[in-house]
Write a structure and sequence with these properties.
The chain is α+β, with helices and mostly antiparallel strands and 603 residues long. The protein has 20 helices and 22 strands. The chain has 4 domains: 208 residues, Histidine kinase-like ATPase, C-terminal domain (Heat Shock Protein 90); 131 residues, Ribosomal Protein S5, domain 2; 90 residues, Rossmann fold; 120 residues, Four Helix Bundle (Hemerythrin (Met), subunit A). Strand 17, helix 12 and strand 18 form a beta-alpha-beta unit. Bound molecules: adenosine-5'-diphosphate and magnesium ion.
């Protein structure tokens, strides 16, 4: 038997396109051919289990071999094989149209070439590295005749009868001059390790089996122990610390998804992608760029996802709109929230211990996904400066008596750094107010978010106003000074400070409060913080403005008013410097002159 033919149906010649445009990912030819060989073996198993094949299955195995002298790479399987007619159908028509469709999609979305290059081109990806491809195959069917197909990269092919006595298929690649890099043991091993590590049929290369055919995620959770999960994690990320906990996903309706997601200890500097989630499709590694397959906040997690329902040979924008991807997204989000809730309910103390490492993740999730927020608001924790931990609801309950202002708003106070704002924290404590600690990089965003979500709630940094204004109450402290005295005192301060970035205001504070408090208003500071985080960068360049709150009831106010002109200014300046000092704002020459003035004042 000998037959020549022409593959081309409607496309002129796709091979130059395959070669030229998909070059960033040439190595995937091996993934495609090995997974075809695995498919062929699985299909035979299936036929046997259905009673449609009664011969020996034998030891189903895929072998990858290469010959540097002959410049060939061979992928052998003992799967179901093909007859000459099947080659015509599956290789000349189906595989070819698959490749054509792929290239056409690619040409439409020319800008996405790298991404598309990741995904399956099928059998014809062999031509990315070969000048000639041979198939020698013997079908499992009774009385099948072995067949040989050869194609040199043009659209012409040739089919002849072959010599082959064992069932299965050999794909022989005659490697092109520009691809000889692949005729190397380490290169091939590297590619096989990357894509084929968890394939369900044994892959033999260089005398050794290199895959685990039953990776953990394909097994039943009930038969697995913690050690198994930890060991698998180490296998995926050899240099990483143990994860905190994990979720074993196992869905088969309405879409197919398995996988294991691990919660790492999330560091404050948000190392987003250091250990990436790996995406598989039926145990074939596809990519670790899962950006559009899972919501961004879930990318803080590690592990594997395996789904044949994720369309792989499409561009990203299409992926985002895909129904299955959306369902997978919301399913994974729900599972993650459920797991956290379960841990929280089961052992609150343990959950609190872990909060340090998962708090950032939970907040990030709440900010970016409303469904996640709905679930997480019950187990999202707040920590105060005493390191006590509360749920949001419990915390509201704790502070509501003392920290509700005259308009019925619940006011939560916080500091970003207990040490630096100690003076302010102390004045809050004098009122028996509680102060929260919000010290992670995400908190700037989280605070604003929480304020919006929680009804009648304000969240203010302890140093953003005088304590009595932070939580304004009905009963007011009276100001001892007359109108005239207030005006004079204000002028004295303005003159001695002599800087328009500081706005002086005289206020009635309790006698035991500081004589002068320097604050940056909450709104102003928040905008600045956002600017610093790249949010609204124009605010970052605004000059800082502060409010200088002078306590008109402090005895030093009277003293300043009574002093002679020169002394007035010295005292006012000194009180102002004390205010700066407790904010950590007194530095440089100002600090030096404060020190020498202090010495003068006490001697
Ligand atoms: P896909 O794997 O998505 O079907 P491919 O282009 O990779 O597309 O392969 C096309 C077809 O060629 C396969 O569906 C299969 O029928 C056939 N085929 C490819 N490789 C083999 C093989 N090693 N053994 C048997 N059939 C094969
Ligand atoms: Mg294939």
């Amino acid at each position: 038997m000998q037959e020549k033919g022409n593959i081309s149906i409607h496309t002129e010649n796709i091979f130059p396109i395959i070669k030229k445009f998909l070059y960033s990912d040439h190595e995937i030819f091996l993934r495609e051919l090995v997974s075809n060989a695995v498919d062929a073996s699985q299909k035979l198993k299936k036929l046997a289990s259905l009673g449609e094949y009664n011969g020996e299955l034998g030891d189903l195995k895929v072998k990858v071999e290469f010959d540097a002298e002959a410049k060939t790479i061979t992928i052998k399987d003992n799967g179901l094989g093909m007859t000459a007619d099947e080659i015509k159908k599956y290789i000349n028509q189906i595989a070819f149209s698959g490749a054509t469709e792929f290239v056409e999609k690619y040409i439409d979305k020319g800008d996405d070439k790298k991404i598309i290059g990741h995904f399956g081109l099928g059998f014809y990806s062999a031509f990315m590295v070969s000048e000639k491809v041979e198939i020698i195959t013997l079908s499992y069917q009774n009385d099948a005749v072995p067949a040989r197909w050869v194609c040199d990269g043009s659209t012409e092919f040739e089919i002849t009868t072959a010599e082959k006595t064992e069932r299965g298929t050999d794909i022989i690649l005659h490697i092109a001059e520009d691809s000889v890099e692949f005729l190397d043991k380490w290169r091939l091993k590297g590619i096989l390790d990357k894509y084929c590590k968890f394939l369900p049929i044994e892959i033999e290369f260089d005398g050794a089996i290199l895959n685990k055919t039953q990776p953990l995620w394909t097994r039943q959770p009930s038969e697995l122990k913690d050690e198994d999960y930890l060991e698998f994690y180490k296998e995926l990320y050899p240099t990483s610390e143990d994860p905190l906990f994990w979720i074993h996903l196992n869905v088969d309706y309405p879409f197919n998804l398995t996988g294991i997601l691990y919660f790492p200890k999330v560091k404050k500097d948000l190392e987003l992608n250091r250990n990436k989630i790996q995406l598989y499709s039926r145990q074939v590694f596809i990519t670790d760029e899962v950006k559009d397959v899972v919501p961004e906040f879930l990318m803080l997690l590690h592990g594997v996802l395996d789904s044949p329902d994720i369309p792989l040979n499409v561009s990203r924008s299409f992926l985002q709109a895909d129904g299955n991807v959306k369902k997978i997204n919301s399913h994974v989000t729900k599972k993650v929230a459920d797991k956290l809730h379960e841990l929280f309910k089961k052992d609150k103390a343990a959950f609190e211990d872990k909060w340090e490492h998962i708090g950032l993740f939970v907040k990030y999730g709440m900010l970016s996904d409303d469904k996640f927020y709905e679930r997480a608001k019950d187990f999202c924790l707040l920590q105060n400066v005493e390191k006590e931990i509360y749920t949001i609801a419990d915390y509201r309950e704790k502070i509501k008596t003392l920290q509700t202002d005259k308009d019925g708003n619940l006011v939560m106070l916080y500091t970003h750094d207990a040490g630096k704002l100690d003076a302010f924290v102390q004045s809050a404590k004098k009122r028996s107010y509680d102060v929260l600690l919000f010290d992670s990089p995400i908190d700037n965003h989280f605070i604003g978010f929480l304020e919006n979500k929680e009804e009648k709630t304000q969240i203010k940094r302890v140093d953003s106003d005088s304590i009595d204004k932070l939580i304004a109450k009905e009963e007011k402290t009276e100001l001892i000074l007359s109108e005239a005295e207030q005006t004079t005192l204000k002028e004295v301060y303005e003159k001695s400070i002599n800087n328009t970035s500081y706005r002086v205001q005289i206020e009635a504070l309790p006698v035991d409060e500081q004589p002068v408090t320097v604050v940056m208003p909450e709104f102003m500071r928040r905008m600045k913080d956002m600017g610093g985080m790249g949010g609204m960068s124009f605010m970052g360049s605004f000059p800082d403005t502060y409010n200088v709150i002078v306590n008109g009831n402090h005895e030093i106010a009277k003293k300043i008013l009574a002093a002679d002109d020169a002394k007035k200014e010295v005292l006012a300046k000194h009180c102002f410097d004390l205010g700066l000092l407790s904010q950590g704002l007194l530095t440089g020459p100002d600090l030096s002159s404060f020190l020498s003035r202090s010495v003068n004042l006490i001697s």
